[in-house]
Amino acid sequence: MLNLICDFVSSMKTVGYVLLAFVVLMFMVLIHETGHYTAGKILGFQINEFSIGMGPKLFSKKKKNGEVFSLRLLPLGGFCAFEGENEDNKNSKAFNSQKPWKRLIVLFSGAFFNFVSAVLIAIIVFSAYGETVVSVRNVYEYAPSANQQLQQDDIIYRVNGRRVYFLDSLSRYLKDDEMTVTVLRPTQQNGQTVYVETELEHIEKGEFCTVAITKLDGSYKSVTGDRSLQVNDNIYKINGNTLSKRGDLNRLLMSDSDTLLVTVTDGADFYDYYIDKIDISTKIIATEQSYTGLGMSVSYLKHKFDFGEVLIRVVPYCFEVGMLVLRTLGGLLTGVVGVEEVGGPITTISMTSQIISTGFGNVLMLIVLISVNLAVFNLLPVPALDGCQMVFVLIEWIVGKPINRKVQSYINGIGLIVLIILMIVVDLLKL
Fold this sequence. Notes:
The chain contains 10 helices and 14 strands. By secondary structure, it is an alpha+beta fold. Strand 9 (234-238) and strand 10 form a beta hairpin. The longest helix has 42 residues, at 2-43.
């Protein structure tokens, strides 16, 4: 009976998290549509309905000016319906009767509100909970001597004067062979940890090679006996000699010893194993992988900047997230990023419900990330999205006459169907 009660409570928790996930997503849709609504009201557009959700109405209220506010059954979107959106209308307040610049502002305002909300919520998150920053985990022995200036737990603050926001930023800044890296170094002062800005010069980029264990047949216990060798461990040393270049593994396997002392790392810690040399060629498959970097591993940690620094960092941070979204989309088109690495609405709901269970700060951070995603995605020139509508308006403004309204409707209708199919396919690939 107790097990049944526990299972029921656990199931209800899961249902609760999923419902909260829908609430979070609908909140972001509300912000987006409020952007369209606010701009429309200011610029004198006639608004027929403001709806949260799709499908049959659950609740609606009509104002004296004719505007209808409604809540609909399906919590998967929403809309702000303008008079004469999909047709030419003699009403001077109709959407397509308004000047092109006004329509562009209204169409842009949904994404703009999403971005502004992301910035405002990020200020709250960074001030109350701290920002997730990139820190040094380990500096490997094979790194250039100048790079040994880096120390464990240093926060990578700037590279050649440019602020680092997350790992993608750091990767893109590693273009020069030599650079100046500014870190925030934890230092003990009067029994408290303070971070001192420290400038490290002549940091070098290099070409290195890791040796990753990709297949493992058998069980191997560490020298201390508290850990088993695992797939994805990197072989760091053999008999005290580091591996950093292609061919190092085969060269070190030519040692006279039948039993080798193998040091591996999971990126965080190091572990020693005694392994028979013959096993490394018969029971353990290790693959060499080249990379360009500083010869170190990194991790993430929470760090609270002072409020002034938060205000300086927050807008560029959100822009960096937006650029990362665009690069990911570009990677999908070029094949660099696999379709299975992204998710549709079901994946988003699932991920959101899981993050909700980890705490309010993470929920707020998720809202920041998804809000920026919505802002960027809606501005893409893809049929059925605001970006495509903006392209139609720009063409009308330049040419002096609109594209046939029926053609626009067909393009948007087909585009919407394709988008829905793509989102379903992406989610099915996750199953």
